[in-house]
Amino acid sequence: MGDLSSQLRPSPVATLSSSKPAKPTPSQLALCAEAGNALSLHMDIRKIKFPGSIEVGKLIQVAEAKSNLKCATLELGGKSLLINFPDANRDKALPSATLFLLVNSKGCALPTRLYVHEYFADEFAAKLKTMVEARAQSLGGDPTLAITRSSPLCHYCQRNVVFSYIDAGNKEAALLIGGKPFSSEDEVVKVANDTEFELAAYVWTADINGALRLSQKLEAETISVNEASSFHPSAPMGGWKLKITDRVRDAGGNPDAPGTVDAVRAGDKSGTP
């Protein structure tokens, strides 16, 4: 076997944090914007790993076909979900939903789609609004202060993009679909699976058997029940549809098989599926 090396192409706005962990391994840093295209087309590179947009992910796959059919693991965004059934522990489910929505930085498995049963939808929405407003007081604060839960965006261009979306939403957005509670398991499964991005799902319910039944219907790789979010190192880590195009950590020896489900319930500290 020949010598192994890796090429790291960090974000131009966060090069230092990416370069430090690369030092113990035989790596080379590629800091220019053109490096990604050159690496994807290089005939001597056998593996590409890329987290980012669908547009760039598609370009990488085109480069694979034009070069040496190298293997690529692509993580292309995510819109994971959180489902609250009427028998859920609301004292825990509500803070969990707030934390996931406002946690600092990117999280590939963070649920940004909330589904709430009609039995307590109004109560859930009112309390969620109160919690979000309280949490918003420290958004973008000094990252060195303990009270800051979400630090500022690292670049003014990103800030401008975020504000442009907020401004456009205030001026132009209208609710075309969604925004309503669900009334049955079949209904929530249908709307939950209506997306091209799915890595994880979070289910709050006292009915563990029902949660396990639901895990066979949801198009998500990891199903966490009642705040459990453990990922066992031997379990597959991937997604459905456009989320992740290659599975990693697959002890089953079949990284190409879609539809693998890893279900973890609260209280299982080992994260064993």
TrEMBL record:
Reaction catalyzed: an aldehyde + NAD(+) + H2O = a carboxylate + NADH + 2 H(+)
Pfam families per the UniProt record, alphabetical: Aldedh
InterPro entries: Ald_DH/histidinol_DH, Ald_DH_C, Ald_DH_N, Aldehyde_DH_dom
Residue intervals passing through the bilayer: none
GO MF assignments: aldehyde dehydrogenase (NAD+) activity
Annotated segments matching region Disordered: 1-24, 248-273
EC identifiers of the protein: 1.2.1.3
Aldehyde dehydrogenase domain segment(s): 33-179, 181-242
Family: Belongs to the aldehyde dehydrogenase family.
Protein's name according to its UniProt entry: aldehyde dehydrogenase (NAD(+))
Originating organism: Dactylonectria estremocensis
